[in-house]
């Protein structure tokens, strides 16, 4: 069966040609000729048809500002379109793999793997009951595209899909192609760069769009596929809720003064309105299907009881429903359900108090249909609705609150000082004791609603906790039930949040806690001190009661981004792996169930990479079933904009987590040979030293400023949050996102591989051997580690991705922006480390090239010649001491275009 009419090559050629036609029509033939000349010169150099880029450099240097802007826009727009062509190719691969039964990491693979492992139904049911996958969408500013531009690109994507998947008449095809031309023309005429910084509400709306327009629809399909595949291998399984979506957009206050309580309240209200509206649509859709007459069916007792309860609750609406739908009980019930949904959050009585009530109504309909021999109707029409209600509740996505621990300390100190308690002067032990006693006593010590005579910071913190109590009363506890503490370093930092929640009435111990209090461990000192921090908390009377009130589960967040920025790629990965095992042991020692929250970014440098590989590489001890991870920036659009790709991502996450949980049940402790652990200890220590030495070498920060567009990136209107924590220019103060974004723009993805080779060479040179054996390590051991240890394999494969995306020849163009002495101090050092890393990675993996995925290699080959002109134009603009407003716009366009070309920002 031929599923598609096109391929990626045709899409790229035709979209490129269409863009050329639009460019010529909207500008001039001369401008088109210049863009074509630049394009062919870049391709000629990449194909070794010319010896240098001098002609290309000269042509770009001679461009007048207006023409340079057109060139930048042309290449930036090209990448936006080519990204859609590659997205379409991913969809083709998914559809063809599904049709042929060759789709890896699918739920079909899950069922087959469990069956082949000899799992019985009870074991599989345990795995299902344990697993909960929680993607958490953040508003971190790494999405370089405007919302308007994204909408136009989705329209282009829809046209490409139509041409690819539908059989069209010549007239129909001509109409689609005309629409495609109109969309690309409109795209060209639309400003690509934001003139204003997006507001927090813009970011919340962006996240909401993916939840409402993609995930709400596809999540039921994943459940349906899983149920079908497991049903072929196992009987009588109950599929519980396996997904829960969460968000930081509108509630993450760490470093963002624009996230106010009013913004959070607005986000909660809007999300409830969206999900309730979607449920009303579901009820209306079902009403068109469930037209059964009660003269031909006998409804179940449970259904009749719930219908009678609604008649009593809403007599006027019930009378109207009976008149409109006589003898049609399901339609009457659905009419009443719509009315109850209309009254959610309304002053009128009768609305649903929580999603459990709505779920019970949906279950009653499904059960009644099955009792009447209409199981296929229940399965096809009602069960997807049930899955959506179970997944999205009445909140669409639960919000996590987050703030920096310094703000809590300041607020607690000021509030207690008003009561005569000198908290600020206390040491850590005294603070823990004071907070514990305050939490356990019946009467509150402070009034969180009274913010008089407090600093702005303390006032904001107290107001937040005061409002949280109101939000939970209005929207339900599940709508906003997590509080994450950035830069946690001491037990008191966690107890401060528990204390404030207690004073606000969000916590009432023993017995009730409306919040999961989540420490974010992201520095080396916090990770290495995890036993001291968490052990103190678990042994604390107040905190132990809070954990028990939350079902005996402790969520702990790990910060990948700042850990990498502080320690370097290899050392950070090893520290996170080792400390995850340590945290699992601490929780086990205290009989606490652990839920890890992985604070991953989209890029390799910030913990990114293929999610299914990452989940399967986690230490068995940490795989309790529940797992939470951040989805950020442009990665959200890449994963969730297209419904088929979104479904595929959810399927892969679920496959990985189900298999990982089964493996953890079978083998609770991952046995890693001592030799491998010693090798990693040696390599990580040396890699950390090498990385820190680079950062701490005098002049490095200046070199970073010279050789990357960091100053431009700090001025871009990417997100509502400032680029640095204090406005100072140090690596420590700079946020991880602009740190990685800057290196990515310069095509030198140093945070994703620097000091990898230095670390591995330290092992090979003998650092991991005993005193009696100074012969050094060997590559054979590293190859065994790569073949048999998921952690090491994933780490090396991710480094290979970052190395493959690096182009040191282009990075050299940026290095030339630095003074000669500074350049010579750093760039040769970076080059040498890169070359050795490439040599080691290919030697250990046994591959001829860095990449193991042919499609990615093809993508890079297709993109590189088109990114190069943008890089050269950017370096030319960066080299100028003064830019006109038009040149400033062009510079920002090059940043956007390179981000699109690299398919990555921070």
Descriptive notes:
By secondary structure, this protein is mainly alpha-helical. The chain contains 38 helices and ten strands. The strands form two sheets. An eight-stranded parallel barrel has the order 1-2-3-4-7-8-9-10, surrounded by eight helices. A two-stranded antiparallel sheet has the order 5-6. α4 packs antiparallel against α37. The protein is globular, with a radius of gyration of 29 Å. About 1% of the residues have low confidence.
Radius of gyration: 29 Å
Average pLDDT value?
A: 91
Shape estimate: globular
Helix content estimate: 55-70%
Major pleated sheet:
8 strands, parallel, barrel
Summarize the structure.
The chain has 38 helices and 10 strands. It is mainly α. It has an 8-stranded parallel beta barrel with strand order 1-2-3-4-7-8-9-10, surrounded by 8 helices. A two-stranded antiparallel ribbon has the order 5-6.
